[in-house]
């Protein structure tokens, strides 16, 4: 009902009451978050499974609300997408992450999450190009993470946009792989350079034979397509041990490192150590 236009939205507002009002308040506060300096980025290392070397970082948006404290992106990103605020927010993350990575001595990659709304907004490939030029980051070091739901809206247009971005040299990762409706079809239709296997498959890889078989199949798919696979949300040593036994290129997760302010990883970004 939320997407049915303003009249319908108002109709439901009376019924839903508190929840809708809360979203409105959140949206109002989010509108000011950039100028008030309430946004920051937490960086989570992406680690090569066999060596333990850090090969890059994923940029994860953080919002510290003056009264509510930390608000999860799982809460405010949907609000931002619905209101269109994801456009300035997403641009802020992209620019901040590229600027940050351009300053690292170690030539590691940086992965930025991009929402469907951004992908389909006019001029998105141009924006990516402009931010790279402005920050001086080598396009090969930028990776854009897209979930499958971002792709169902207008497939032909999404393909064209992703191909333009790839033609600049930027890599494209399919996020949350396996959770969408047509993962395999998407893999064939879009120019992906990386597959990120969703945490839901990883977390039971050592206890559930189905999960293990699925993860093995995705790893096989990756090697057949010559597309590296990243395991998301690795929390336990058993999960990492499983991945080590297979051909999994890299992993991310609390076991390896929690998303943190980039200063926590100064030894890595300065190139002094790799893990
Ligand atoms: P995602 O892109 O799938 O990011 C992975 C999420 O899993 C992050 O949650 C990360 O903190 C969390 N995570 C990492 N390792 C582990 C682990 O071992 N165990 C568990 N349980 N979780 C782990 P976070 O930071 O709360 O972000 C949630 C989602 O919000 C992201 O999911 C992404 O879809 C979205 N998001 C975050 N930042 C941005 C952004 O800048 N732009 C857009 N469009 N979306 C963003
Ligand atoms: Ca992601
Ligand atoms: Ca993910
Ligand atoms: Ca996700």
From TrEMBL:
Kindly provide the name given to this protein in its UniProt entry. PAS domain S-box-containing protein/diguanylate cyclase (GGDEF) domain-containing protein
Query: What portion of the full-length protein is represented by this chain?
Result: 511 to 785 of 799
Q: Does the keyword Transmembrane helix apply?
A: yes
For whether the record's keyword set contains Repressor, the answer is: no
Q: Which UniProt keywords apply?
A: Membrane, Transmembrane, Transmembrane helix
GO annotation, cellular component aspect? membrane
Per the database record, which ranges form the EAL domain?
A: 23-273
At the top level of its lineage, which domain of life is listed?
Bacteria
């Amino acid at each position: 009902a939320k997407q049915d236009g303003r009249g319908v939205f108002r109709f439901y507002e009376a019924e839903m009451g508190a929840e809708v009002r809360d979203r409105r308040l959140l949206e109002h506060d989010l509108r000011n978050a950039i100028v008030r300096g309430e946004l920051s980025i937490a960086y989570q290392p992406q680690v090569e499974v066999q060596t333990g070397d850090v090969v890059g970082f994923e940029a994860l948006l953080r919002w510290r609300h003056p009264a509510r404290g930390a608000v999860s992106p799982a809460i405010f990103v949907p609000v931002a997408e619905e209101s269109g605020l994801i456009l300035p927010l997403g641009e802020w993350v992209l620019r901040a992450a590229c600027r940050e990575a351009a300053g690292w001595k170690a030539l590691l990659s940086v992965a930025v999450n991009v929402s469907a709304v951004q992908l389909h907004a006019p001029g998105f490939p141009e924006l990516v190009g402009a931010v790279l030029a402005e920050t001086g980051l080598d396009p090969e070091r930028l990776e854009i993470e897209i979930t499958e739901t971002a792709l169902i809206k207008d497939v032909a247009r999404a393909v064209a946009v992703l191909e333009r971005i790839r033609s600049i040299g930027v890599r494209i990762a399919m996020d949350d792989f396996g959770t969408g409706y047509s993962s395999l079809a998407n893999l064939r239709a879009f120019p992906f350079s990386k597959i990120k296997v969703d945490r839901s498959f990883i977390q039971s890889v050592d206890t559930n034979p189905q999960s293990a078989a699925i993860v093995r199949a995705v790893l096989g798919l990756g090697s057949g397509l010559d597309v590296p696979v990243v395991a998301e949300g690795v929390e336990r040593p058993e999960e990492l041990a499983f991945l080590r036994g297979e051909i999994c290129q890299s992993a991310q997760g609390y076991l390896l490192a929690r998303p943190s302010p980039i200063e926590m990883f100064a030894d890595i970004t300065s190139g002094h150590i790799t893990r």
